[in-house]
Amino acid sequence: VHRLITYIFIYEDLISLTCGAVIIWYFAGSFEKNVGTVKHCILTATFSVLSALLYLFLEPLVSRLLDVGDAKGFMPVAFATLGVSTTRSRMKRTLVLGYRVPVVLVPWFGLCIAWFIPHSSLLGNLCGLLVGEAYGLGYCFCLDFPESVGSKLDRVFPFTLLRRIPGLKYIPGSLAERRASENS
């Protein structure tokens, strides 16, 4: 059962670790700025478990048709955060390789590119993207909690410790506190 979360920390080589670090820095960082550190941590664990469960459900079906690699690394969770971000984005179109495309297609282009990253699991990334899209469209509304709960969680143990770590940028749970910290 512990592997439902710990698979995001497993990397086969330096190239996949580097790709995972870039994906974490770029996609998860912008997602954290929008929701706050508390909600980001909770959703990271939730997206990890839901992606793993969906992978475990689909793997026997897909393995009959294709060679399926093990889900490893942070990419499934990064695709989940990317799916949420693009689904909830107010932008209609964006530039990809010089062409204007609908924003909702960006994660699918990313999925095609991730197929070529060594030791990445196409099925694992697809499961992460599907979980993120479902959450972004509101099908997982039970995972949302009010900002007041996020503000209260900001003041409990693991998150008070995260605030004190020098060099680590902690993003508050409430929108008002996030805006105030951005302005200062």
Automatic annotation (TrEMBL):
<feature type="domain" description="Peptidase S54 rhomboid">
    <location>
        <begin position="2"/>
        <end position="139"/>
    </location>
</feature>
<feature type="transmembrane region" description="Helical">
    <location>
        <begin position="40"/>
        <end position="58"/>
    </location>
</feature>
<dbReference type="GO" id="GO:0016020">
    <property type="term" value="C:membrane"/>
</dbReference>
<protein>
    <submittedName>
        <fullName>RHBD2 protein</fullName>
    </submittedName>
</protein>
<feature type="transmembrane region" description="Helical">
    <location>
        <begin position="6"/>
        <end position="28"/>
    </location>
</feature>
<keyword id="KW-0472">Membrane</keyword>
<dbReference type="InterPro" id="IPR022764">
    <property type="entry name" value="Peptidase_S54_rhomboid_dom"/>
</dbReference>
<keyword id="KW-0812">Transmembrane</keyword>
<keyword id="KW-1133">Transmembrane helix</keyword>
<feature type="transmembrane region" description="Helical">
    <location>
        <begin position="97"/>
        <end position="117"/>
    </location>
</feature>
<dbReference type="InterPro" id="IPR035952">
    <property type="entry name" value="Rhomboid-like_sf"/>
</dbReference>
<dbReference type="Pfam" id="PF01694">
    <property type="entry name" value="Rhomboid"/>
</dbReference>
<dbReference type="GO" id="GO:0004252">
    <property type="term" value="F:serine-type endopeptidase activity"/>
</dbReference>
